[in-house]
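Handout, section B. The chain below has 492 residues.
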Amino acid sequence: MKVVTASILYDLVECPKRVSLDAFGEASRRDETNAFVRLMWERGTLFEGTTVAALRVPFVDLSNAADTERESLTLQAMTSGAPLIYGGRISMGDLLGHPDLLRKEPEGYVPGDIKCGHGKEAAADGENGKPKLSYAVQLACYVEILERLGRAAGRRAFVLDIEGKDVEYDFVDSPAGRNLWRVYEKAVAAARSILYGGTDPLPAYCGACKLCHWHSFCLEELTAADDLTLIAGLHRRDRDAMRESIPSIAAFAALDPETFVKGKKTAFAGIGADRLRALHARAVLLKRPDPKPYLRKPVRLEVFPLELFFDVEVDPLRDICYVHGILERRDGDCDNERYVAFFARDITPAAERDAFAAALAYFARRPDAAIYHYSKYERSTYRRLQRKYSDVCSRKEVDRLFDPTRATDLYGDVVLKATEWPTRDRSIKSLARYLGFAWRDPQPSGAASVAWYDSRCTHRSEELKQRILDYNADDCRATRIVLDGIRSLAPA
């Protein structure tokens, strides 16, 4: 019998099709594991070891025990009342979990995982916000097993995260917590349906696809099926709601969306009338013989004598911003543009602080320049850096830097709100490539940059440093390409 593991539930939240393919797919059809994914595994293991080594309470270490013995040893440790158990294994029925930690409390044991990421989703202002569903379903799996073993201290768990925070996941004491438990129950039911119920979920195009080892396989299937999720902004749940009536992009483009509109709502759960019309317009655009991007509404992008195209590179596994890159363009002259970068010389807080301070000083010397970035990531990164290094600047200074009168988030404020493109998504890579731009590196991605940076930290390679800077410079140029492209768009 196949078992439902906590790691399967984690994958299911990201993509149910991956669970099915991992269980039943042909191994020969898998892509090579992405370098960033391998790095995540390696750094996760190292971070876990470092975190465990720093624990200030005695613990039972079962991490090196054989799987055939680990479960019985875990039960013995709980029976003896061990205050902390590391590397245990617990199961009940078809549920199996390997919680990193089991912490003894008066009522029983509370499970926890060590994560080399933030314990919760980042909120818009950079503060930790909502629980991560992928973490929540793993933790809830441990909780249910402990409940069924009669060992649980309640429906709660914790994450020890990259910032050293002990982040609680409570599945009872709030409506949000109880909703998380329902999410978990649905995930378990879906996993069982896939693993031994014969359900084979459809693939769906999303942001997580690019790091998945089934990416090529699924994209081939999606393209052949003319799948609706290849429309930018149309998600798996939308496709599943629409699919019975609208099986493909071509079918969507050919129909009148008003057929499904009922006031502000539509016949499809979770899709409002205006959104359906917008998705239909994208379907029509994708199916035109010679599709061209266009403006949905007028945009005002003033031309400044000095324009700065800004992009940061961050290693989430070390929680360090290692590049602040800026492309300068004066008077619209692309031939004489200049790239400037502030690079963290090593992985220490002092190096991160110095690069941050140097970048802020650079911007301060150019108070009249316009700043363009792609997404709110730069702003949230600077807010996080300000909290870490409050001696460098105040929150007000960061807010002034990103004031809308000076700084423009091309993605959130312009592309999403006012433009349409004949692309599967609105990422900087997709739009700049559509406009004819080519990155110099054969494997350009933020994830690849993190892998290069990790290797550079180990080998101190100047060649790798230059590869990182070249990639960042191209991201800055891509931002400039997209700005100029938007300025040239005609209305619909």
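Note. The CA atoms of residues 166 and 179 lie 21 Å apart. Compare this with the example in section A.
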